[in-house]
Design brief:
mainly alpha; Rossmann fold; two-stranded antiparallel sheet; 4% strand
Length: 678
């Protein structure tokens, strides 16, 4: 545990120093926030520095090295110097607030790192893909990074968030098998503190004089909803199990414990289409589920980015309305942030573009005429789209979209199921909407209303249509619903704390809020207990499972990471998605001919290429024709051949003699595991 604490502190210090680089700029951007947007300095620095590294790498100007990272941060520091005098004054005045937020960040970073240490394995679900992206990026010299499962093509997915964590991994010089788990904890901590900052500043804008109690309470409650909250499914399902077991709702301790023990936490994210079982399987996850299952996937990586975007929108709306048609203070940062969001999780560009349109229109209507509000919203929105296209061009030049067009939904969710998932938020937010006109309205009211409206639209949209993808008909709406309602959950969560303060004079409402809050915050108990157990502390190193299951493979992976530089191609068995196949390419970042077939099917827009490659990999391991083997090895420029437990399992007719016939030498051997160098 103490050795892990050393890694946590080092990781935290790196993030702290990186954040300080853009702290002066942050105080300028968030000048109307009581905390000057302190926590967002980390997101700004990481976003800007990584984007610069990415663009310069795409155009082969600057390689992805520690020196390049340091130079980029120095360039950002020079840019920030112009705001230094104001920042220094702010630092002297506000340092207790900054220390408070930093302490919360460190506390949650440490706490969730220790939670991860009870089940640190980088294995299962999407972890191989996510970690493989990071390791491939760590080995890359220039962008775009190589697809570790489809040499020699680049990654055809949204990897900017993985690039951010590769950036921090390289700068901290900590093994990626550890930083993977630190990255999960980092997103968790940033989610909590950035949510706290945004909502407490929304509440701060209500009062002419700062009222510490309501400000802190609103921020903390919203941050808890956002980061550690579930939905009403836990209460619903436990009650349903209780009734099924007893014939009626029995509220004795034994009955409740028995029903609770039968509850399975993923059911809260797989409810519509699964209970009851129908031909319309959907996904409706939320941040805590992501933190628990620990896939470092785009939808989770982008949480801090989109919260920053929401906070930036509100900060810009607090300033006097721009007299000119184009508000460049709003346009340029919005376009760049939405570009980073797109390259991290593409759906978020559309989702938060919608939030921009609704919030800008509502806030503008409160300050100017209808015609002017429409014109400014349209003009600024179109300009953002144009700049977004330019900012994402370095990414788009090496990326092929995977969507196959829009379809109308032919099935719809039952209202009671939607209520189980989002009814808690509706109970909190609907009174705010009902009493809206009775307030002495301020900018924050219109902004929170825009969050509620946008979230509700996002829940309705999958009931109307969906984007066609490779998933089978039974799961046709799943991905669309997942990507939209995930953000809806976040927007509702951000609204909760502010709404409580706005309606705090209504005693019955405070009781309602407490009940809903309690129902949502039951979920972490079931999720964390089920996934982690919290009985055996194992540490942050994510490869212990390989040490136990495939020790010879792990030894070979260590040898490759210690002795092979660059990204020469290594041949290993092609495998099914969500298995332990392709552990070598994943753990080393060395590209192979074909990795997880279904994933490549998605990324390459069809099965033909991945299917053909899988056959070629099989032929390379099993073919008795030396000439065919030579041609295939040359075709993919294979320099290393890996023969381990998975290859022996996959190819029963595996024959290594042909590799030796072609001059391959064994450069590593441990048990049955061998590495040949051609």
């Amino acid at each position: 545990m103490f050795s892990d604490l050393r890694f946590i502190i080092l990781w935290w210090l790196v993030i702290l120093l990186v954040g300080f680089v853009s702290f002066p700029l942050t105080t300028k951007v968030f000048s109307k926030f009581y905390d000057r947007g302190y926590i967002f300095s980390k997101i700004i620095s990481l976003g800007l520095a990584t984007y610069l590294i990415f663009v310069l790498g795409v155009f082969k100007i600057l390689p992805f090295t520690v020196l390049s990272i340091v130079l980029t941060l120095l360039a950002l520091a020079v840019f920030n110097y112009r705001y230094f005098p104001t920042w220094l004054k702010t630092l002297k005045e506000k340092y207790p607030v900054f220390i408070f937020e930093e302490a919360i960040f460190l506390l949650i970073l440490t706490a969730w790192s220790f939670v991860r240490a009870y089940a640190p394995d980088i294995e299962g679900l999407e972890k191989y893909m996510d970690w493989g992206f990071i390791n491939s990026i760590l080995r890359t010299r220039f962008m775009p990074p190589a697809d570790m499962w489809f040499t020699p093509l680049p990654i055809n997915y949204y990897y900017f968030g993985h690039l951010v964590f590769a950036f921090l991994t390289k700068l901290s010089n900590i093994s990626s098998a550890i930083t993977y788990n630190l990255a999960i904890a980092t997103v968790c901590a940033l989610t909590f503190v950035s949510g706290f900052s945004l909502v407490s500043n929304l509440t701060f804008s209500i009062f002419k004089k700062a009222k510490i109690g309501p400000i802190l309470l609103s921020g903390l409650l919203a941050a808890l909803f956002l980061t550690f909250g579930g939905n009403l499914h836990t209460v619903y399902k436990v009650a349903k199990i209780n009734i099924q077991k007893n014939g009626h709702l029995l509220l004795t301790k034994d009955a409740l414990v028995s029903a609770s023990q039968a509850y399975w936490y993923p059911d809260a994210t797989r409810f519509i289409g699964f209970d009851p079982d129908i031909n319309d399987k959907t996904i409706h996850e939320f941040p805590l589920y992501s933190f628990v299952v620990a896939d470092l996937h785009g939808h989770m990586n982008d949480i801090p980015v989109v919260i920053f975007f929401v906070a930036f929108l509100f900060a810009s709306y607090l300033l006097p309305l721009s007299k000119s048609l184009f508000n460049w203070f709003l346009i340029i940062p919005s376009a760049l942030t939405l570009s980073i969001a797109y390259m991290t999780n593409a759906w978020d560009f559309a989702v938060y573009g919608l939030l921009f349109a609704i919030s800008h229109l509502l806030v503008s209507l409160s300050k100017t005429s209808f015609q002017s509000a429409i014109l400014k919203t349209f003009a600024n929105g179109i300009t953002i789209i144009v700049l977004w296209y330019l900012f994402t061009l370095p990414f788009s030049l090496n990326f092929t979209p995977m969507a196959e067009g829009l379809r109308l939904s032919d099935t719809h969710s039952a209202f009671y199921q939607l209520f189980v998932l989002y009814g808690g938020f509706w109970l909190i937010c609907l009174p705010f909407v009902a009493f809206f006109r009775k307030f002495k309205l301020i900018t924050a009211d219109y902004f929170v209303l825009s969050l509620i409206i946008t979230a509700t639209i996002l829940i309705i949209l999958p009931e109307i249509g969906y984007l066609k993808d490779i998933y089978i008909y039974e799961h046709r709406r799943a991905n669309t619903m997942f990507k939209l309602v995930y953000q809806a959950f976040m927007m509702y969560s951000l609204a909760t704390g502010y709404v409580l303060v706005r309606l705090s004079k209504i005693k019955l409402y405070k009781l309602l809020f407490l009940i809903v809050f309690s129902c949502h915050l039951i979920y972490p108990y079931f999720a964390v207990k089920s996934y982690y157990g919290l009985k055996e502390y194992r540490g942050l190193w994510g490869l212990e499972y390989l040490k136990n299951l495939y020790p010879d493979n792990l030894a070979a992976i260590d040898w490759l990471n210690s002795n092979v530089t660059g990204q020469p191609v290594i041949l290993e068995a092609s495998g099914d998605s969500y298995t332990t196949y392709n552990q070598v390419s994943v753990a080393t970042g060395l590209p192979t001919v074909e990795g997880w077939v279904v994933h490549e099917w998605l990324w390459r827009g069809g099965y033909d290429l991945p299917g053909a490659r899988a056959t070629e990999v099989q032929n390379m391991y099993q073919s008795q024709n030396v000439d065919e083997l030579r041609q295939l090895l040359q075709k993919y420029n294979v320099q290393y051949v890996f023969v381990g437990a998975k290859e022996i399992e996959k190819y029963p007719d595996l024959d290594t003699k042909n590799f030796e016939t072609l001059g391959a030498k064994i450069v590593f051997q441990s048990g049955q595991t061998k590495i040949y160098k051609l």
